[in-house]
Amino acid sequence: MKIVDVLSPEDILPELAASSMEEVLREFAEYLKTREVIKDVDELVDVLQNREKLGSTGIGNGVAVPHGRLPDMDGIVVVFGRSTGGVDFNAPDRELVHLFFLLVAPEDSAGDHLKTLARISRIVKSPDCRRALMESMDNESLYQVISEEDKRH
């Protein structure tokens, strides 16, 4: 599965308004509610916060991949968001997080969920990709960077 199979250009948020971990999670959940992907903002926020309690989904190098599973999902959904100012996400390297890939999967999709997490990790491993994501100006150029890096893996 490619990331572009579960991420569309309209699911790119070029500038998150959030300035805290909880605000980031809520902003993503509210976005998915407006897109009618989820029914309950608080349910998703709770799932994501419970996952964060197990250990930060901040993976270092300015990247976090908050993720969780919900029972009523039709399929895997990925949303990309960027915070140019950065957010403290308890990343292991203690750096602020600027690049977020939210992953929400159906409850019974453990295998695909893990494969998608691994694919996101491979995409953001490249310093050139991370730099290009920080420098891109709009949804289309951000999507293009992700798509090009996705093709390499």
Word description of this protein:
It is built from five helices and six strands. The protein is an alpha/beta fold and 153 residues long. Strands 1, 2, 3, 4, 5 and 6 form a six-stranded mixed beta sheet that branches. α1 (21-34) runs antiparallel to α2 (41-54). 35% of the residues are buried.
Quaternary structure of the protein: single chain
| Biggest beta-sheet profile | 6 strands, mixed
Radius of gyration over alpha carbons?
A: 14 Å
* N- to C-terminal distance: 11 Å
**Low-confidence residue ranges:** none
Structural class: alpha/beta
For the secondary structure, the number of strands is: 6
Q: Report the mean per-residue pLDDT as an integer.
A: 95
Q: From N to C, what is the helix and strand string?
A: EHHEEEEEHHH
Q: What is the percentage of strand-forming residues?
A: 15-25%
Outline: globular
- Roughly how much helix do the residues carry, as a percent range? 40-55%
Tally the helices: what do you get? 5
